[in-house]
Amino acid sequence: MNERQNSASDRQYEESNIWLNWSNTKEYMQSLINRSAIFARIRYKCSSSYRLKRQLLDSTLGLLTWYLLVVADLFPPDVFSVLSFTLISIKELIIWLSLYPAGLKLNSPLNNALSNFFLYHIYLWQIYLSVLSAWLGPTIVALSCVLGLSIFLATISDLISLLTIHMFCFHVYSTRLALLFYYAIASLWRVFRGRKYNPLRQRVDSVQLDSRQVFIATLFLTALIFLAPTVLVYLVVFSTLRFSVIGTKRALEILARIEDELITQIVAF
């Protein structure tokens, strides 16, 4: 009897875990769909009026864009070959950061550690792109042109998001490291002044410290202050790259939205 109850409870527990995993996966996929520029354009096309006329005009503009890209020899045979220049540029940028950029005297051990860390992620990103290049070629871009100019712009925007994951990771890493330094320096500065944050009362209280504790806090505070410029340089560089990618994506999405609105007005007129 106990064995039957245990087996029934185990089965119920497994079913609940499967349901939770499925619900989490469903929510994750829904969030990806909501962030995708392609699905946003498709939803707009399906919800607006004059669907057939709009699609014919949009597809005509998309095919014309594809023809101009092919004639101008701007249609790449391989996505990976297009991004090789970006890969080399980012490598050179990281190497430049490790060699005292703009005359800044950075901390050599920390600088070398960070540069090697980011260079290794560049290597992983290169493997990631080599896998994607097997199926992510000009066929997707050509198909998006057939579906319309707005879908083409949205596809380019989503491809930028997909192929610049490394920049997002670099931005997150540098931001987290900078925040860690900020909170550590702020906490040690309070200790240096004889104060300490009380998490229970959510306030800063006075604290009595002996000379040894003050010396250790001062030592760590001095070390972190001298290491902070190195972290700040990486934060500024990778934040600039990340914001450049976001700006490019937003510009493409705005162009796609404007193109859809113009086609709607032309067809309605």
TrEMBL record:
Leader sequence residues: none
Keyword Transmembrane annotated: yes
Keywords: Glycosyltransferase, Membrane, Transferase, Transmembrane, Transmembrane helix
Coiled-coil residue windows: none
Entry GO MF terms: glycosyltransferase activity
Tree of life domain: Eukaryota
Annotated Gene Ontology cellular component terms: endoplasmic reticulum; membrane
Keyword Transferase in annotation: yes
TM region positions: 81-102, 114-135, 141-165, 177-194, 214-241
Organismal lineage: Eukaryota, Metazoa, Ecdysozoa, Nematoda, Chromadorea
Record's protein name: Phosphatidylinositol N-acetylglucosaminyltransferase subunit Q
InterPro entries tied to this protein: PigQ/GPI1
GO process annotations (BP): GPI anchor biosynthetic process
UniProt xrefs under Pfam families: Gpi1
